Amino acid sequence: KANRLFHPDDTIINVKGRKVGEGTISIMAGPCSVESEEQVVAIAKSVKESGATFLRGGAFKPRSSPYAFQGLGYEGLELLKIARKETGLPIVSELMSLEHLPAFEDVDIIQVGARNMQNFDLLRELGKIDKPILLKRGMSSTMQEFLMSAEYIMKEGNDKVILCERGIRTFETATRNTLDISCVPVLKQKSHLPIIIDPSHATGLSWTVEALTKAAIAVGADGVMIEVHNNPEEALCDGEQSITPEQFHKIMITVKKYAEFE
Length: 262
Ligand code: PEP
Ligand code: MN
Hints:
The strands form two sheets. Strands 3-4-5-6-7-8-9-10 form an eight-stranded parallel beta barrel, surrounded by five helices. Strands 1-2 form a two-stranded antiparallel sheet. By secondary structure, the chain is of the alpha/beta class. 33% of the residues lie in helices and 15% in strands. It is globular, with a radius of gyration of 17 Å. β3 (26-30), α1 and β4 form a beta-alpha-beta unit. It starts with 12 loop residues before the first strand and ends with a helix. It has helices at 37-50, 74-87, 120-126, 143-155, 183-190, 199-203, 209-219, 245-258; strands spanning 13-15, 18-20, 26-30, 54-56, 91-94, 109-112, 133-136, 161-165, 195-197, 223-227. Bound molecules: phosphoenolpyruvate and manganese (II) ion.
C-alpha cells in the first residue's frame, strides 16, 4: 500500500486544513518535552509567529535512562491542547503505549518514535484509527524495514502515514546520529508517502539545525521537525539539540527564501 507502483500519485495528508506532502514545507516545531503550561504556550506562540505550521511536544517520553525525566504524561497532552487553543497550531505528540491511545483522540498527529518503529502491535492498532501517524525511522532500520512498518499501519486501513528520517546509528561519533539525507529521494522513488526530516535528533547539535533544514528543503523533503526551547540550557530533555525561538525565527526567514510553505 505504501508502494508507488500501485499508487503513482503523491499522498497528501490533510491535517485540519494543512496539507502535508502538497509541495509546500510543513514545519513542526516545539519542545522535546512539554514541561509546563507557561513553557509550551510561550514556545507555541513564538514558533507560530515565525511561521511554524504544527506544534510538536512530547508528553510520554522514551528516555534511555529510567531515571531521566519521563514527561508529564496525560497532563502534558492537556497542556498541548491549551497551546493549540491559543495558537491554532495542530499538535503532534508521541504515543508510546496502546494503553494511552484514548487520551490521544484529540491529538492531531500521533507520533511513533524511532524506538517503536517495529512495535508491530502498536502499528497494527494505529492502522485501525482514522488519524495521521508520523512514523519515525528506527535508528538501526533499513529503508525497506521503515516502509514495511508504514505498511503495517496501512494494511489495517489507515493510509495517513507521514515518514520521518531522524538519523541512524553509524560508526560516526561527532554527531548523535547520522542524518541519512538519501532517504528522501530513495523513499520518494519507492513510495508515495510524504517524508519529513528531523535535523534535531539526527545530530543532537543545535548549531547544525539551520544547515540541515536547508539540506532537507534542497533534497525535496515535505517538511522538517525541529526542537525549539525557550531556555535550552535548562531543558528537561534534549537541550543540546534545541534551538531558541530567536534562532528558529532566523531559520524560518531562510526557509521562506528557499521554499514555499503555508
Ligand atoms: C522525539 O521526537 O522527541 C523523539 C524522541 O524522537 P526519536 O523517536 O526520533 O528519538
Ligand atoms: Mn527530543
